[in-house]
# Entry
Amino acid sequence: MSIFQSLIKKEILHLLRDFRTIIVVLVIPVVLLLLFGFAISTEVNNVRVAAVVEQHTNETRHILEQFRTNTYFTFKGIIPFDEIENILRKGDADAVVIFRSELGELKHQIIVDASNTNMAQTSTAYLESVISSATGIPVVTNTLYNPQLKSAYNFVPGIMGMIFILICAMMTSVSIVSEKETGTMNLLLVSPVRPWTIILGKLIPYFLLSCIILTLMLILSYTVLGIPFSFSVINVIWITILYVILALALGLFISTIASTQVSALLVSGVMFMIPVVLLSGMIFPVENMPLVLQWFSCIIPARWYISAMRVLMIQQLPIKYVLTEVVVLSVMTMIVLVLAIKKFNAKK
Amino acid sequence: MKNMIDIQGLTKRYGKLVALDHVNLSVSEGCMFGLIGPDGAGKTTLYQILTTLLSPNEGSAVVAGLDVVKDYKKLRTEIGYMPEKFSLYPDLTVDENLHFFASLFGVDVKDNFDLIAPIFDQLKKFPNRLAGALSGGMKQKLALGCALIHRPRVLLLDEPTTGVDAVSRSEFWNMLATLKEKGITILVSTSYMDEAERCDCIALINKGKILDINTPGKLIENTDKNLYNASSKDMYPLLEALRTLPDIKDCYTFGATLHIVTNDSFNPDNTISQLRQRGLKDVNIWPANGNIEDLFIKLAKNDG
# Structure
């Protein structure tokens, strides 16, 4: 067996023997994907709405009929004016609409429980659109790419951006640093094996693991989560592989700075996980951030990866629309790889 | 006889700290050479330079005729290294560890098994046990086996018996003696003084400096002639009292007793009666044979 093969075999044995980690590594992506895909959603269903009507007209009847039939609403009935505060306070309704006729014209007022801002904004928008379509000039909104505004579509790229940093950067750095801690790294280094071979022997098993996870996530996305399948999946795959290589290089880089497993975990956690979650646009849109944070987000690989994934997976546009992202990711990969290898080779 | 390890003016600094200070040392071929010194003396740094893991700031080191800086690639196949902790993969089995280290050097376990067969006598029975589940003595044997599997000419052992029980330690030294007979040069560091006496030649090292190099017998001759054991019921008051007496140059605990180094004019009986006046009863003082530990304490003290 060649040196290279036996290095890889050893690493795979480490992974297989550490059964708990391998389960966690395979289960976390699935759980996160399903959790964000179904349970945690920013969509608002079942807005419980009550109405105060001073004078019934055809218009008000028409609107109330819409509330009853629309699946996004649960109509709680018509209530007297002085009940409004009570019903909102008890939490029996999320919003109350007051209809009043002034000079033969129907006016309305929406009172909404804003203890959950997200819910309040969305339900106000729903109510406005229902009322305006019944009264004034109807606004025709055409939602492209994600017509049902499913939040799963939004989260899949984000979760992929996070998972690969987690697995590649964190696991490789911890595995290299653990060899430093136990002293086996010194034994590898005093053997005639070249440093390059040692590094590749470490990175390739985790690369293969990432490929398995990528397959798992793509299958789930296109089946369970129902993201429309198209040939852009080929672009999704190779850009993800580029991103995985970048994450592996980051892991290698961390391992050259950190001297204990705990510090490797902390560095990869603090330096990568938190910015990825908060600043990559996974949850909070980059465009809404203060300017300084927007600049800062530019150095976070996940930001570019996630935005490329949105274009390719959700919009399903051809590759030319994500050229910037691809170039940025490639340049980052080159820089981190060169830095990591230089630091790894540096003799004390 | 040819020198297998030749160290000239070797200096290594970590910032302001001088870990090795112009160390000169040579080990002849087929010799079992002991490196004796307390923690922090610079032993591990010396090993890391000899194994090409660190580069020295000054001086040169030649191992098996190869310079540790210039010929480090070639040198790596000639040395077997066993670091301070037993560095094995605890989640790999005995066999997997051995085969992995053999493959690193591009050798076959079968070809070189004769060399490690005596070491593997007990380990042979459970080739599929995880290395992490072995006892301390077994781990040490496996680590030694892994360090030897490529038939190195020089074996570098950094505190190989730390944390191992007395029986395993003694077995381990017997194994080293067998390896020496096969012509392997061994540089071994230890902080156990009884082990030092099993080496052909030893170097005493402290604070990055070599204090003395000689055979254990010659070194012991250099210990103080006026050396006595002292004991009583209450050891600590005795130690304090002895240190105030004019005839006594030095006094330190040595196992269950105290060792005292004295002037020529020292008289044990007079001292016992003097101590009795101070209220210390049951004091015994009798002549002691100095060993390397005594010498070491003396040298380290002179060094300052």
In short: The interface with chain A takes residues 48, 51-55, 73, 76-77, 79, 81, 83-85, 87-92, 96, 99-101, 103-106, 130, 146 of chain B (CB under 8 Å). The mean pLDDT of chain B is 87.
